[in-house]
Structure formats: structure tokens, C-alpha cells
Amino acid sequence: MKHDPQAIQRVLVLTFFLNLLAAGAKLGVGLWTSALSLTADGLDTLFDSLANVIGVIGVRLGSRPPDEEHPYGHRKFETVAALIIASLLFVTAWELATGAVERLLERPTPVVNRWSVAALAFSALVQGCTGWWEIRQGRRLQSEVLVADGRHAITSIYVSGAVLLGLGLVRLGYPWADPLVALLVAGIIAKIGVETVLENLPPLVDQAPLPTAEIGQVVSQVTGVESYHRIRSRGTPDNVAVDLHVRVDPRLPMQAANAIADEVRRRLLELPGVTDVTVHVEAAREPESATHITQAVKLAGEELGVAIHEIWVQQAEDGIDLHLHVGVDPNLTLAQAHALADRLEQVIRERLPQVRTVSTHIETAVPEILPTAGVSRGLQERVEQVVQEAVERIPGICEPHHVQVRQVEGRLFVSLEALVDGELPVSEAHELSTRLQEQIRQALPNVGEVLVHLEPAGEHV
């Protein structure tokens, strides 16, 4: 049977009057005979009645429908009510324990008569039947308040039995038995409080009421779901809210993707206790590509204000290795530049979990337009001669042209174009340009930067 707040309140109201009747019998006789254990048992029952009132309030608040401030409903108010009941149990246990210790020190002799036995027998019968009925109704109505309160009521049989034993020992001439039994009752009440807390604390700290594997098993059987992740659940065992992400074929139309999500939702709502399901549909990811990784890395660099080039993506057995050159503001100190590179590596790993290692080479980047100056005719010719000789030493490159030489902040900036076979792979062409750059730098130590642009030989005019 589903959770029925009105039925739960009716059970609690009836239980309140029954507990009040049993408490009156035990308290009346206990105060009359000065039997602390009997009075303690009566106080325990009286707090049961107060707990019933708190339970009614909690159920009434918890039965309210979801609203803007409580989108998942108000059921946790019922859980809070159960925890308030537990706190009352702890207070009762403490008061009984302190009173029992004082009675042990004073050693007064309580009166034991047939009314003591009658009060215990009557209250035990009433509370035993009430507790059994309350637990049964709590499980039928899926109410943790009824189950928690019923368990407390059913233990009254054992408590009353212990009190009766203690009064029997008092009758035999052992007055210390009365406060000792009261201590025992206090311990039982405290134990019930701990059990109530342990049962009702998980929903308040959002402990998952459903195993992820159980939800995943249901989702994996839905046709069209290619994968799923980020499965979460929250709430009480009878009021579970589930949310998850499922991936479907990216080529599916929106209507088909929504139909798959609806089927996932329908099947999860069939699980016991599940009342709310949120499904996030995503397109299944294509196989990993260097282009995707490169774009993500460059975007991270732009956000941090650094220039990224020379990105090398390498596939390892257990992940991706990245090697990249990072251009930073030349006005930064080495420590600042290193911290910026570390931050970049951290961002890349957060956004690309498949990346195993990130190796960065820090370079200077000049974000502003730099003033340049021309060079003498003699220096221009010398540079052209160096370029020609370097090209002749590298098979595969020919006809260097458009050699430009500029002075930038006291150092030379050389750019040139050369021809290569148009059928060469880009990797081999890049290797040729790198060799040419290195030879020019060796011949001209004052060169700051060398830029080589390679063109297919057949397209050069």
C-alpha cells in the first residue's frame, strides 16, 4: 500500500490515547507506592504519548505536495519528527538514570502491593498490543514514524517485565533492586533512541537508498541506451528520487531520444519506493580525436590568457599524453609563469579525464604589435646567403624566396618561403622546416625567431 498520511495520523491519534491510558495506570501506582522503576516505566509511556503528537505534526507537514521551495516534497519532515522522538528518548533515559543513582545513594524502601502488579500487567498488555498493531500499520502504510514509535511501544513488555522482577526483589527485602531496574529501563530507552537515529539519519544526509548497480541494470535493458553515468538517488526507502544521464545515438531525432528517456523513466518508476525520476539525455560521444583534444586545450589556454602552439597528442596504454608549448607574458617572473603553466595543466586534466600527463614548455608571447626596423643591404644579403646554404644542405627543400629580415628589440626576425614536394606528409614537412630553422639559428646567433613557410613545388609561380 502507498504512503497514506491521513491513515497514519489516525493510527497515531488512537495510539496516543492508548499510551495515555497505560501511562496513567503506571504513574498513578508508581507515585503512590514510591516505586521509582514503576514511575520510570510510566514516564516512558507518557513520552510515548507526546511522541505520538509530534508524529502527527510531522506526518501532516510531510504530506504537503511539492512546491518551489521544496521541489522533492516534504517527506523529510516526517523523518525529522522521528529524530525528535529519539531526542525525547535520550532525555527520558538521562532523567531516569540520574534519578536511579540518587535512589541508590538514599536507599528508601518502596511499597509493593497487588496494585503495582496490576498496573504493570495492564500497561504491558495495552502497550504490547498497541506496538504490534502500530508496527504492522507502519509497514503497510510505509511510514517510518509508525514503525519507530511501534518498536518503542513493543519494548514496554520487556520493560514492564524487568520492573516486575525488580519489585519482586524489593518485596523479598532487596530495596536496591528498584533503582537498578530503573537504570536498566533507562538503558533500554537509550538503545531505542540510538536505533531510531540510525534508521532515520540516512535520508537527511542524502545517503543513496537504492544501489547504483540496481538502477543501472534496469537502464541497460532499455533499447536505444548506449551508455549511462552519474546515477544518483536520494530520499527515504519509500520515497526515492532518482536522476541519471543516458547517452543515445547522436543521429537520432529529438522525438526518438525523448521516447528512450520516457521508457527509462517508466521502468525506474516501477522499482519499489521510487516516486520521482529525472533523465538527462546526451548524445553518445564519438571516438576520441586529436582535434577535439586540441580545441579543448586551446580554449583552456585562451581562458587563462596564454598562447598555445606545437601541441602533440600521443596515445599511451593507460591514457593520453600531451606535449605543448605555452607562450606567456614576457614581463612575468619565472615563478609566475610556472604557476600559470601548472594551472593550465590542472584545468586540462579536469576537462579531459582521459589525459594522463601534460608536459608544457614555457615560452614568451608578445601580445602587442612590436616596432621593427629594417636592416642594411649587406646584412640582408648575408642572411639570404645563410638561408641558401642551409637549404642546399637539406635534401627535400629547394628554391628559398621572399626572405625578409627585420630587427625586433635588437634581435633579428627572419621569415622565408621554400618549396617542397606537395605529396609529402605534413609531419615530414614539419621536420624539414624545423631542421632549416635550427641551421639558420646556428649560423646567425643573434636571430630571435625564424619562421619558415613551405609551399608545394607544383603550385609555386
What does this structure look like?
Helix 2 packs antiparallel against helix 3 and helix 3 (76-106) packs parallel to helix 5. The protein contains 13 helices and ten strands. Strand 4 and strand 5 form a beta hairpin. The strands form three sheets. The chain has a four-stranded mixed sheet, covered by helices on one side. A three-stranded mixed sheet has the order 1-2-3. Strands 4-5-6 form a three-stranded mixed sheet, with helices on one face. The chain folds into four domains: 5-203, Cation efflux protein transmembrane domain (Alpha-lytic protease prodomain-like, Up-down Bundle), CATH 1.20.1510.10; 212-283, Cation efflux protein, cytoplasmic domain (Alpha-Beta Plaits); 290-364, Cation efflux protein, cytoplasmic domain (Alpha-Beta Plaits, 2-Layer Sandwich), CATH 3.30.70.1350; 372-459, Alpha-Beta Plaits (2-Layer Sandwich), CATH 3.30.70. With 461 residues, it is α/β, with parallel strands linked by helices.
Rg is 41 Å
CATH superfamily of the largest domain: Cation efflux protein transmembrane domain
Assign a percent range to the helix content: 55-70%
> Order of strands across the widest beta sheet?
7-8-9-10
Name of the CATH class of the largest domain: Mainly Alpha
Oligomer: single chain
Total helices: the number is 13
Q: Judging from the principal axes of the Cα atoms, what is the shape? A: elongated
Q: Poorly predicted ranges (pLDDT <50, ≥5 residues)?
A: none
CATH third-level topology of the largest domain: Alpha-lytic protease prodomain-like
Could you spell the SSE succession in H and E letters?
Answer: HHHHHHHHEEHEHEEHEEHEEHE
Distance between the termini: 86 Å
Judged by helices, strands and strand pairing, the structural class is: alpha/beta
Strand content: 15-25%
How many extended strands? 10
Taken together, the total number of domains comes to 4
* Major β-sheet profile: 4 strands, mixed
What would you say the CATH architecture of the largest domain is? Up-down Bundle
What's the overall average pLDDT, rounded? 77
